[in-house]
Amino acid sequence: MREFSEDYLERTREGMWDDSRRALEPLALGSRERVLDVGCGTGELSRVLAAESAGEVVGCDADPALLERAREHVPVVAGDALRLPFPDDAFDLVVCQALLINLPDPEAAIREFARVSSDLVAAVEPDNGAVAVDSSVPSEERLEDRARRAYLEGVGTDVALGADACDAFDEAGLEVLETRRYDHERTIEPPYGDAALTIAQRKATGAGLADDRETMLEGEMSGEEYDALRSEWRSMGRDVIEQMEDRSYRRREEIPFFVTVGRA
Ligand SMILES: C[S@@+](CC[C@H](N)C(=O)[O-])C[C@H]1O[C@@H](n2cnc3c(N)ncnc32)[C@H](O)[C@@H]1O
């Protein structure tokens, strides 16, 4: 199972769903009685669901450390998405966010969601192949694109699932009701917060890139190509920090997420 740190999840979800929740409308949260958020991690989606629904929201994840954090927002239960510890029809909505992209067999998980839902099943999944970056450091967009492509080639699951989640719903035997797009926009601009400073430091030290080294080398990238990328990457990170020092650094990233809703 791919593991995620608390820090990574909170950093990458910051501001998500704060600007608009229109893409969540097909989940009919206002009329749900029991909602399950599978692969809830630190509960970033769970707390949005709890805010929008009068019903009970329960978080479920296989990682007990992340559940400790999610517990601050909603009641939680430890469990595997492929063998949920709930009886048939225990919820009227089962939803996940950025879970299917991490599973080798997303259809199996969707079938399991359908088993425990008496009505709706939904997935909020990004297309990590279509992320757009705009930065005041000229090399940042090109280097991030290079790193992203190398990661996509090496990773063993479909991290660009996005809008194609509806095909997985189809294959799992669910009726797809609707797919809506939500662009999660992340901006860094002065005054810079702690998260922005951490991101910049991780660029300058190469730590962020190193996290994905093994995955990149699983694809077509050679060790020499990785080392060359790392050297350019660290230099780009130093440029980011330099621009931050004179408050001229600006970065905007748009990650397309697709909300697919089906009937169990
Ligand atoms: C990218 S994170 C998404 C977390 C959260 N939904 C969010 O959007 O912030 C994926 C989550 O799925 C969990 N996960 C991965 N495989 C799982 C499995 N088989 N069963 C339950 N949880 C799983 C991980 O522990 C992690 O918390």
From TrEMBL:
It comes from the Archaea. InterPro entries: Methyltransf_11, SAM-dependent_MTases_sf. Residues 36-116 form the Methyltransferase type domain. This is Type 11 methyltransferase. It comes from Natronococcus jeotgali DSM 18795. The keyword Methyltransferase applies. GO terms for biological process: methylation. Transmembrane segments: none annotated. The keyword Transferase applies.
